Amino acid sequence: MNIAYVHSGVLPSSSPSETFVLYNALGLSKHFNKVYLFLTKKIKTNSNDIVKLRFNLDVPDNLIIKTHYSIFQKYSNNFLYKHYYNDLKSLCENNEIDAIITRRNTFLPFLVKLKKKYNIPVIFESHDFYADLSMRNDLKKNKWKKEERLEKKYIPKLSAVFCLQNTQMELYKKVFPETKFFLVRTGMNKPESIRERRKKYITYIGSFDKLKGINTLLEATKKIEYGITTLIIGAKTRQEIDMLDDARINMALFDKVIVEGWLPKEKLKKYLEKTIIGIVPLEDTFFNKYLTSPLKIFDYYSYNIPIIASDIPSCRELILEKETGLFFKPGNPDDLAEKINFLLNNQNMIKTMSENINNFSQQFLWENRAKLILDIIQKLKK
């Protein structure tokens, strides 16, 4: 069976979506005969070479990365999607694909046209929720009206929708009770073998957006009782690094905090191997509570790192309290510092949590995600 996955993201980029779609495609390549991954490219370097350079990964022969090159930061969606649509039409007419997935709601009109024309299963993998903006208190409604109209009009015409979280799926089911929804969680790489290493970091990986809670982590760092460094990774620009550098200097944390930008796989690996606790300090917002599926959780799990996360539903779905991690009150640096100090003072608990993570996380492997997708598509085709 062959599959196409459509994403208009740019290769290369500092967006977490790049990591998601590439590892997802590699997982799919282990269960599908052919995988066609649609992306945009803004440099002329061969796509497989970009993947090798940035992720130290070899692209298998059955994974075909189809990119449309642009010297601009991005195409207009309509221009880009017409190219994707024509390529997908050709693949359908030659019986080279059996299903299509997109994570872009703006591509849904094209997806529905392909379903109608070729009677092929088409699936929307949602990473947000716009179907009923009245449920959300975190968005400017006028700005997202187009996305709301697209989801309301086209989701009922799809074969299925994949959701990353149960909380997200329940929201969609309220709007579309007749649509088929499936829980298909974010994936992760196989956990590293558990080895004794000198642990020297408390680590945050991800966006520097203020709603991700980095300021809460910085405030908590002041109250950590042990001589351990807080490592913050993921700045997209030099400006973001400079802003956080200024903050740590103003807070007298210059010697206690290291700030890094986007890191290649090998350098990130070295940091995570020396991480004792992973932090997920999300603020209490609608998106964070019900929609996000933080990639950082899976990054930490890949290295058997216990997690301290905000006590919100999205994190509760992925972390087992006192087994793979602990929770703190969102936005409360005192509570976060207390949980960090508690874990640092209980090394046996950290060791037990690491062992638990090694077992618990097997269900999230990218190849297991791909097998689930294959099973779903086979059912949809019956």
How many H/I helical runs? 15
Indicate the multimeric state: single chain
Number of domains: 2
Shape: globular
In helices, the fraction of residues equals 40-55%
By CATH, the topology of the largest domain is Rossmann fold
CATH class of the largest domain: Alpha Beta
The SS-based structural class is: alpha/beta
CATH level-4 homologous superfamily of the largest domain: Glycogen Phosphorylase B
**How far is it from the N-terminal to the C-terminal residue, by CA?**
14 Å
Strand tally, please? Answer: 13
Q: Quick one: biggest sheet?
A: 7 strands, parallel
Question: What pattern of helices and strands is seen along the backbone?
Answer: EHEHEHEHEHEHEEHEHEHEHHEHEHHH
The CATH level-2 architecture of the largest domain is identified as: 3-Layer(aba) Sandwich
Amount of beta strand = 15-25%
Radius of gyration: 21 Å
Return residue spans where pLDDT drops below 50 for at least 5 consecutive residues. Answer: none
| Average residue pLDDT | 93
Widest β-sheet, arrangement of strands: 3-2-1-4-5-6-7
